[in-house]
Automatic annotation (TrEMBL):
Keyword entries, A-Z: Toxin-antitoxin system
Protein name (database record): Recombinase
UniProt xrefs under InterPro entries: RelE/ParE_toxin, RelE/ParE_toxin_dom_sf
Length: 98
């Protein structure tokens, strides 16, 4: 089945913030972060059920190199990305986004 990615509006802000922070740490690191996000999103689209459900029907896919995770739910042929979130932030923030 082909899935369509849908992003909640907050996800863009989270990505921009993380990209800027990593880019300020070292030139090019922000781009590497975005590549890791792109890789995990591609894997999610290929086999979305392979990641564990962590809250209600929301699943979590953890990035390999960076301390971030993608939180998403599967709704028919759509993958709705709820958050791309740093592992040390309060999860109550993304949990309110149902």
């Amino acid at each position: 089945m082909d899935y369509v990615l849908v992003f909640r509006p907050e996800v863009r802000d989270e990505l921009d913030e993380a990209y800027s922070w990593y880019e300020n740490q070292q030139a090019g690191l922000g781009d590497e972060f975005l590549e890791c996000v792109d890789d995990i999103l591609n894997r999610i689209c290929q086999i979305p059920e392979s990641y564990a459900v962590v809250y209600n029907d929301i699943r979590r896919a953890i990035l390999q190199r960076f301390p971030y995770a993608v939180y998403y739910r599967i709704v028919s042929s759509r993958i709705i990305v709820i958050a791309i979130f740093h592992g040390r932030r309060n999860p109550a923030i993304w949990q309110k986004r149902n």
